[in-house]
Amino acid sequence: MAARNPEERIYRAVMRIPRGRVATYGQIARVAGMPRHHRQVGRALGRLIDDGLVPWHRVLGAGGTISTRSADGSVEQLQRKLLEREGVMFDARGRVALARFQWKRAAKGP
Questions:
Q1: What is the average pLDDT across 40-65?
Q2: Domain range 6-100, CATH class
Q3: Which end of the chain is more exposed for a tag (fewer CB within 10 A), N or C?
């Protein structure tokens, strides 16, 4: 059965991202059937930092950057650490090469 709740659709889409791959907020919005709602994706994922089920850390900004979530930078450091553990590499400017690490999803929805 398809998820009706927008947040549930977002979470299901994020859970499809394989280990060692990343997606952008816009990409997740499209996969969840909500094109142009990348900010809603960001808000939904912002509530999941301690969730443990949804791999929120695999979602980045359109330029391959980690979005600011905490005043002290601790969440951003955690996100980078989690991605690096999965083999995702950052350049000197703190960006992920989307051409190399971006998830190429199948045509099916979440």
A1: 89
A2: mainly alpha
A3: N
Strand partners, 60: 24
Provide the 10 A C-beta neighbour count for residue 90.
Answer: 16
CA 2 to the chain's CA centroid: 21
Query: Residue 98: which of 23, 16, 17 has the closest Cα?
Result: 23
**Cα 25–Cα 53–Cα 60 angle in degrees, nearest 5:** 20
CA 74, 79, 80, 85 dihedral sign is positive
Q: Percent of the chain, pLDDT > 70?
A: 90
Task: Please state the domain extents for the chain.
Answer: 6-100
- Looking at residue 54, its amino acid is V
Q: Which residue has the higher pLDDT, 90 or 1?
A: 90
**CA-CA distance, 98 to 88, in Å (whole number)?**
10
